UniProtKB/TrEMBL annotation:
InterPro entries membership: CYB561/CYBRD1-like, Cyt_b561/ferric_Rdtase_TM
Organism the protein comes from: Chloropsis hardwickii
Reactions it catalyzes: Fe(3+)(out) + L-ascorbate(in) = monodehydro-L-ascorbate radical(in) + Fe(2+)(out) + H(+)
Ranges where the Cytochrome b561 domain occurs: 24-231
TM regions (residue ranges): 18-40, 61-81, 93-116, 128-155, 167-188, 209-231
Region span, Disordered: 235-254
Membrane topology classification: Multi-pass membrane protein
Primary role: Transmembrane reductase that uses ascorbate as an electron donor in the cytoplasm and transfers electrons across membranes to reduce iron cations Fe(3+) into Fe(2+) in the lumen of the late endosome and lysosome. Reduced iron can then be extruded from the late endosome and lysosome to the cytoplasm by divalent metal-specific transporters. It is therefore most probably involved in endosomal and lysosomal cellular iron homeostasis.
Gene responsible for this protein: Cyb561a3
Name of the featured protein: Lysosomal membrane ascorbate-dependent ferrireductase CYB561A3
Subcellular location(s) per record: Late endosome membrane; Lysosome membrane
Keyword Zinc recorded: no
Keyword annotations of the record: Electron transport, Endosome, Glycoprotein, Heme, Iron, Lysosome, Membrane, Metal-binding, Oxidoreductase, Translocase, Transmembrane, Transmembrane helix, Transport
GO cellular component terms listed in the entry, alphabetical order: late endosome membrane; lysosomal membrane
Pfam families: Cytochrom_B561 (PF03188)
Amino acid sequence: SLAHRCHHRSTAMPDVPFLPFCAFLGTLGLLCVAMVGTWCQHWRGGFSLDGSSRTFNWHPVLMVTGLVVLYGAAALVYRIPNTWSGPKLPWKVLHGGLAFGAFVLTVLGLAAVFRFHNSQGTPNMYSLHSWMGLATVLLFSCQWAAGFGAFLLPWAPAWLRALYKPIHVFFGSSILMLSVASCVSGINEKLFFSLKNGTMEYKLLPAEAVFANTLGLLILIFGVLVVAALARPSWKRPDSDSPDSRQVQDALGG
């Protein structure tokens, strides 16, 4: 029918190859990590474990690397065409392993900011950024534990996996966007705290503010592109074994 042809054309027209898209996304992620490291090294005094502001500098680097870039990579594992055939277990392990690596970096990032606050006598958990960030980490913890129990442990029945899979996918995208929001609000908060004296006022937009604002925009673009890739029907892994994927295929006319 005409409606079916129009629907097919609308899904097929912006046919971006997955692997070049992934290469671009990987470059963008590495750029975000390089930029947050450069910001902390060049403008914020570098890194240390002595409880000073140089200890705090580990916080943005570890959070951007773990909670955004590594987490985004973990989310996209099942979109790689090589995962669509053969045994699924190695890819499950890779997906869970990348997510666990992101979690470890995130916990270290939290430890850095709490150590800095405690050594300086600064209160913890007093800003919207801190509330949103901690909520994101707690949600991430629950997501990883539930995913491990449902998809990696052999005891989980097929009906439970089918029931939980769309929930897992939904919260995967939600946590990534919460991570992006936490990072962007954290960058803004740090700039407002740091650039407030003499010629370094934030309202004068010194080079550091331009650099960090650009970093925030790149993090946002990275997150949006990952979510867009996750939502793209033609990049989803065909999985005829589970009822939920059959319903998706039926809905798409597949």
